[in-house]
């Protein structure tokens, strides 16, 4: 006979289960059967976990009443914590050796740090927590880790737009779009089978200049009759004559970029008014 867990162990196990399954509705009977406990005891445990989550600022537990109800963990991050994380990232990005030709920043090392990615993903998930999201979309390649980090906290699939078509993806939908910075006509493609029609999509990208890539993804989604419910970018530039997208959220903003003297200055993006 399997040994029944003590309440302290049960609380730890329940907390771990909730953290690993964000946005998933978990019936109280699932926990009751798992631990051989009464629903009243499980409800008391969830109240303790709920209080802890809110105190630590890691999210909230939302209770859904009714026979088909249960509890759902919503990952959230307090504004003060989010500001601290973004300020730390902006400081790293201000290093002069990150400046690349064309006004781009080298960010691959930051986008390769699991801890930093997880923090960014939690911030994005917090910013778009109230949106009804079916998929997170990005364009290859540097936006991919950001999209996966965000989708992990939203518990939704990731859809990757390709610059070149791949035979392994089957039939694709391709469009031409104009790059906002270079004004060149480029192509992006998305496999038909990866995105059902009428889906609600959150677009995530690492860098935005004029917004040509984001506009291209918006136009591509129209071919799938999909709805764009939000656009989130890690860093945007401020010295743009014409922005091709208006409704977006940025974590950081480049306010000064001097190619000659290798000087870069960043400030917090517009997420401050959204979180």
From TrEMBL:
Record domain Phosphoribosyltransferase: where: 110-249
Record InterPro entries: PRTase-like (IPR029057), PRTase_dom (IPR000836), Pur/Pyrimidine_PRTase (IPR050118), PuR_N (IPR015265), PurR_Bsub (IPR010078), WH-like_DNA-bd_sf (IPR036388), WH_DNA-bd_sf (IPR036390)
Domain spans labelled Bacterial purine repressor N-terminal: 6-75
Keyword Metal-binding annotated: no
Gene3D superfamilies: 3.40.50.2020, Winged helix-like DNA-binding domain superfamily/Winged helix DNA-binding domain (1.10.10.10)
Key words, A-Z: DNA-binding, Transcription, Transcription regulation
PANTHER family the UniProt entry points to: HYPOXANTHINE/GUANINE PHOSPHORIBOSYLTRANSFERASE (PTHR43864), PUR OPERON REPRESSOR (PTHR43864:SF2)
Subunit structure: Homodimer.
Family, similarity comment: Belongs to the purine/pyrimidine phosphoribosyltransferase family. PurR subfamily.
NCBIfam families per record: purR_Bsub
UniProt-recorded name of the protein: Purine operon repressor
Protein source organism: Ammoniphilus resinae
């Amino acid at each position: 006979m399997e040994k029944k867990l003590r309440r302290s162990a049960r609380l730890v196990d329940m907390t771990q289960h909730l953290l690993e399954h964000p946005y998933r509705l978990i019936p109280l009977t699932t926990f009751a059967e798992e631990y051989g406990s009464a629903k009243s005891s499980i409800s008391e445990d969830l109240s303790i976990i709920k209080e802890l989550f809110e105190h630590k600022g890691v999210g909230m537990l939302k209770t859904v009443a009714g026979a088909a109800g249960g509890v759902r963990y919503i990952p959230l991050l307090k504004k003060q914590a989010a500001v601290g994380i973004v300020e730390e990232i902006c400081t790293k990005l201000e290093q002069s050796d990150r400046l690349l030709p064309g006004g781009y920043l080298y960010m691959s090392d930051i986008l390769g740090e699991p801890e930093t990615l997880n923090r960014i993903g939690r911030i994005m998930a917090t910013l778009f927590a109230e949106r009804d999201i079916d998929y997170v979309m990005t364009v290859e390649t540097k936006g991919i880790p950001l999209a996966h980090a965000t989708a992990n906290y939203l518990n939704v699939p990731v859809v990757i737009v390709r610059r070149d078509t791949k035979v392994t993806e089957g039939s694709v939908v391709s469009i031409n779009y104009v790059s906002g910075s270079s004004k060149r006509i480029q192509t992006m493609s998305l496999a038909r089978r990866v995105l059902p029609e009428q889906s609600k999509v959150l677009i995530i990208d690492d860098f935005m200049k004029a917004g040509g890539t984001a506009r291209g993804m918006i136009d591509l989604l129209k071919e799938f009759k999909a709805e764009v419910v939000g656009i989130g970018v890690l860093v945007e530039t401020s010295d743009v004559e014409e922005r091709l997208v208006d409704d977006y959220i940025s974590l950081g903003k480049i306010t000064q970029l001097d190619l000659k003297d290798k000087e870069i200055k960043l400030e917090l993006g517009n997420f401050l008014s959204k979180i």
